[in-house]
Write a structure and sequence with these properties.
By secondary structure, the protein is α+β, with helices and mostly antiparallel strands. 36% of the residues lie in helices and 27% in strands. It contains 17 helices and 24 strands.
């Protein structure tokens, strides 16, 4: 048995659509660019990922609670956060092809080319210069750097570039029943601000003591200049964020703690260590004094999956100034001089992971094509090697044949397991084809009911990854499979 070379993104996209994981949105109308729908199996996998993250945050940590804030927020929220004035991407067009690009992504692509050519120092220098220019808002310098590096348009093959302009990524709309009286509001571009404006509500109602965290899962919206690479970069996406409120001066220790904790989570759900790495930011966001990405090696290279940021007191301080309402915490704990820490605006360490990017990383990692058998019996086998706790279905119940009472027995077994974990029943086609169907959607266990079952109440469990089979009593199924597919198997590895 041997595993074949890595697959392409097109293989992933094709499999996701064919087996009910991800569909292009409104496809019958030729779709909408960079918007996707999760199918019947995709929504289960995504929900399982979100549940694992939620439990890892709120169940494993006594000092982290969750909220669900509104998508619509007062427009001054985004003024205070800096999004109105500074939530921009550098945009550049090629005059010959009329194709639009993000200037920073062009330069990052060139840096990746240098890396692939064995010139890591050249790549590092290019990224550092790009970071310096963007930090200084020297857009003409960014254009000159693109030209100096001889970066060409992928369509026209020319370097005939326009000037670089800033493009605000927020979607705007109006609220109000009459257009003339309506107010401009925004679809939230991130979920973090819903946490910040509820900081004191949660702290006081929950009697929370610093350090404590607030977690949230929710939709966000960004009018991306270049949306690409399947569900990696979309205009409507879902974030899983946790803001951890701490004493000023302790932020770097907590920053390091959350870096390692979040890396453990990704390994616990089955992502291999060699496909994960930290990438420190060359250019820090306006709110951060430290920032790092956890990157995963997608078919198109290492890309950001999660960000850990030390946001200082930027957000709460700005909301306090603009709202004129104090966002302070009274700390009654004693310092080294025996005095209470008193009132202060907490600092924040943020962990922010894209649910869609985590889904894509998990799906890419699980997609497995291997050669089985030898000689004339050699063939390719495709399956999704998902962590059992994440699989859309945990078990499939399959009668060997539909006669002699086997189907009824199998149906009864399936019904007895449904209250414990998600189970499917399948009696169509030969048993080998049914195994293949379950492999392709990642079902970890197939339970086969045969004639021996009718005699001694035992069944055969077929394991997805190894294709090995074992005989088990029906009375043991719920406990045996239930243990393997429980989210606790993920949590205990963090």
């Amino acid at each position: 048995m041997s595993q074949l070379p890595a697959t392409s993104l097109q293989d992933i996209i094709g499999h996701a659509k064919e087996y009910g994981f991800v569909f292009p949105s409104s496809e019958i109308y030729d779709g909408l660019q960079a918007v996707y729908d999760y199918g019947q199996n995709g929504v289960e996998l995504k929900n399982n990922l979100k549940a694992a993250w939620w439990k890892a945050m709120t169940q494993l940590n006594d000092n982290i609670v969750g909220i669900d804030a509104s998508i619509f927020m007062h427009p001054l929220t985004w003024k205070a956060s800096g999004h109105v004035d500074g939530f921009n991407d550098p945009m550049i067009d090629n005059k010959d092809s009329k194709k639009r690009y993000r200037a920073d992504q062009l330069l990052e692509g060139k840096a990746e080319q240098y890396e692939a050519e064995g010139q890591p120092e050249k790549a590092k220098a290019l990224l550092a210069e790009m970071g310096r220019l963007l930090s200084a808002e020297d857009l003409n310098g960014v254009r000159e750097l693109i030209i100096t590096e001889n970066i060409k348009c992928a369509v026209s093959g020319t370097t005939n570039w326009t000037e670089v302009r800033q493009f605000n990524l927020m979607f705007s709309t109006q609220v109000g029943s009459v257009a003339e009286d309506s107010s401009l509001i925004y679809l939230r571009p991130e979920t973090a601000q819903g946490i910040f404006v509820n900081f004191l509500n949660v702290q006081k109602s929950g009697r929370m003591k610093v350090p404590f965290g607030i977690a949230q899962i929710g939709k966000a919206f960004r009018n991306e200049i270049v949306a690409r690479q399947f569900i990696f970069r979309m205009r409507e996406f879902e974030q899983m964020e946790m803001q951890f409120f701490i004493r000023p001066g302790t932020e770097m220790a907590w920053y390091e703690t959350w870096k390692e904790t979040r890396l453990k989570f990704h390994k616990a759900i089955g992502l291999p260590a060699e496909k994960l790495k930290f990438h420190d930011h060359e250019k820090l966001a306006h709110y951060a004094n430290a920032a790092v990405d956890i990157e995963y090696e997608f078919p198109f290279g290492f890309r950001e999956m999660e960000g850990i940021h030390s946001r200082t007191d930027f957000d709460l301080k700005n909301h306090q100034e603009l709202s004129k309402k104090k966002q302070q915490y009274f700390d009654s704990e004693l310092d080294e001089n025996g005095k209470p820490f008193g009132n202060y605006i907490p600092y924040v360490v943020e962990t922010s992971v894209g649910a869609d990017r985590l889904f894509l990383a998990t799906f890419c990692n699980a997609y497995t094509v291997e050669t089985v058998g030898e000689g004339e019996n050699e063939k390719q086998r495709t399956f999704l090697k998902l962590h059992p706790a994440l699989a859309p279905f945990k078990a499939a119940v399959l009668p060997l044949v539909k006669k002699d009472g086997l189907a009824e027995k199998a149906q009864a077994i399936a019904n007895s397991l449904k209250s414990s974990f998600r189970t499917t029943y399948d009696d169509g086609a030969a048993i080998g084809k049914r195994y293949t169907r379950q492999d392709l959607i990642g079902t970890p266990f197939c339970i086969v009911i045969d004639y021996q079952t009718m005699e001694d109440d035992t069944v055969t469990i077929r394991h997805r990854d190894t294709m090995e089979q074992e005989r088990v009593a029906i009375s043991e199924l719920k406990e045996k499979i239930g243990y393997e597919v429980a989210v606790e198997r993920i949590l205990e590895a963090i």
